[in-house]
Write a structure and sequence with these properties.
Helix content is about 45%, strand content about 15%. The protein contains twelve helices and ten strands. The two termini are about 15 Å apart.
Length: about 290
């Protein structure tokens, strides 16, 4: 370990990063730790996880609530560090090709699309979106829910106007984001919200779970999206976006400004600068006699 200038590691749910940070600390090698944290899951509060954060020279964490908690309880050397999205993926020159790829999977019959993008797992609360669609149908508002993502729970999807496409190639995903009238994500536990950034880059407004602290870092309710916590509100906000298209366009445009602030080049440059600084500080510090020998 002492032969290295810096340790960069992540994912504290496995033992190797924990042990590597301990060794780096013992050999005075700077350690940058990027743990994947869900504060509402006891699994991430285990002592070895907290110990690893305490031993790191700096831990790069999201969401902001996790940063605040860890700074108070574990170490002041915790900094907010978000993920990102690639705006070039959503360049207008790709729009027609991506939409065509999506329409090969699902023909356009004129029904407004509600997109649910992510793993099909109960923890993602996709059932709330399906129930909201039934409420809209009872009010005479026709919509179609399109679900894209891995089938983790293997549960059947019920609904006359629900289409589950499973995992899809990237161009189909981008096309779905462009074709949808709204993206709905009711997951209560996320470490970030890349799917929201990508919806905004595609020009699509978002509805997200009010109780998801990571979504709260990105969505300002009523400005660049809606934050809701129950089925009735999901249905009401979808109806508002369908009946007032200009509202969705304005929200998506505000969201795009947020998304541009999270392009992948920005965290990459920040990480590069941080690692360079820490590696340089190792050699600028006075060495002990044992280290010089």
């Amino acid at each position: 370990m002492c032969k290295y200038d810096i340790l960069l590691t992540h994912n504290c749910v496995f033992q190797p990063p924990v042990e590597a940070l301990q060794l780096a600390n013992e050999h005075r090698v700077p350690g940058v730790f990027m743990p994947h944290i869900h504060l509402d899951d006891d699994f991430y509060h285990f002592p070895d996880v907290m110990q690893a954060i305490g031993q790191a020279s700096i831990s790069l964490v999201s969401p902001r609530a996790a940063v605040d908690f860890l700074q108070r309880t574990v170490s002041p050397r915790v900094r907010y560090f978000g993920a990102g999205a690639d705006p070039y993926e959503f360049d207008d020159r790709r729009a027609m090709q991506d939409l065509a790829a999506f329409r090969e999977r699902l023909a356009d019959d004129g029904t407004p699309l509600i997109l649910v993008l992510g793993r099909k797992a109960r923890a993602k609360n996709y059932a709330m979106t399906l129930e909201a669609q039934r409420l809209l149908a009872a009010r005479g508002i026709a919509t179609r829910v399109v679900m894209i993502g891995s089938d983790d729970d293997r549960a059947p999807v019920d609904g006359l106007d629900v289409v589950y496409l499973g995992l899809q190639p990237r161009e189909v995903v981008r096309g779905a984001l462009r074709a949808a009238r709204v993206l709905v994500n009711m997951s209560a536990s996320e470490s970030f919200g890349i799917v929201l950034l990508e919806a905004w880059l595609a020009g699509t407004p978002v509805i997200a779970n009010h109780h998801c602290i990571a979504f709260g870092d990105l969505v300002e309710d009523g400005v660049n999206g809606f934050l809701v916590d129950n089925v009735n509100d999901v249905a009401e906000r979808v109806a508002a976006l369908l009946t007032t298209p200009v509202l969705g366009m304005a929200m998506a445009e505000c969201g795009r400004e947020v998304a541009i602030g999270y392009t992948w080049s920005k965290p990459a440059d920040e990480l590069d600068a941080l690692c360079t600084q820490l590696a340089g500080s190792r050699y600028s510090e006075p060495q002990s006699s044992s280290a010089r020998s």
